[in-house]
Amino acid sequence: MFKVRPAVSEDFDGIFNLYKIVACTVGGISRLEEEISETYIREFMSQAQTNGIQLVVCLKEDLNQILAEIHCYKPVQSVFAHVLTDLTIVVAPEVQGKGLGKLLFRSLQHEIRTKRKDILRVELIVRETNFRAISFYRSIDFRIEGRFERRIDSRNGRFESDIPMAWFNSEFENPYLKRKEE
Ligand SMILES: CC(C)(COP(=O)(O)OP(=O)(O)OC[C@H]1O[C@@H](n2cnc3c(N)ncnc32)[C@H](O)[C@@H]1OP(=O)(O)O)[C@@H](O)C(=O)NCCC(=O)NCCS
User: Fold this and answer.
1) CATH code reported for the domain at 2-181
2) pLDDT value of position 81
């Protein structure tokens, strides 16, 4: 029924609409609906496609209908060349809780283990009240690394903390050890 595939430039409209819808739901991604601009989508698609990973879930019967998306990319500085950062995942509200989030994360981890041995670390930040997302990320081997106190304006007079989490690629090939062997 569902298919995971790498995102392509033609997915722009589908991804833009998906982010608009998900941003309307309180408590998920850290962007308001009016902050989902074409520039924001174009920039992360360009970064993920040239310097990272971007996967989408679509229907097998309609490969153009985007139901979920995940992306992350390398920071520009070369000292972070082994890192994929700014990981963001969104699943269309009508299909949340049906396993698509897990499917995307598993596909991402598989791709990194098998094809991206240059990547050691994948990082994300999740708001502290997104309890289900935090326990989900822990269940797929992301570790909590700390706590950014009162970082998020919850728009209800409260400021909640952001939780940095990271996953490590067991198949990472350390370029320094390789060079020594040669
Ligand atoms: C969080 C999110 C990516 C999970 O994807 P999903 O497809 O709904 O989740 P799955 O069905 O694959 O279930 C995976 C786990 O996520 C949790 N989960 C399910 N629905 C969820 C929801 N609406 N919000 C948060 N977590 C959810 C479940 O606890 C589940 O764990 P389990 O299988 O051990 O019970 C998705 O719900 C979403 O896009 N939420 C809104 C945006 C958001 O919160 N993005 C993440 C910001 S860091």
Assistant:
1) 3.40.630.30
2) 97
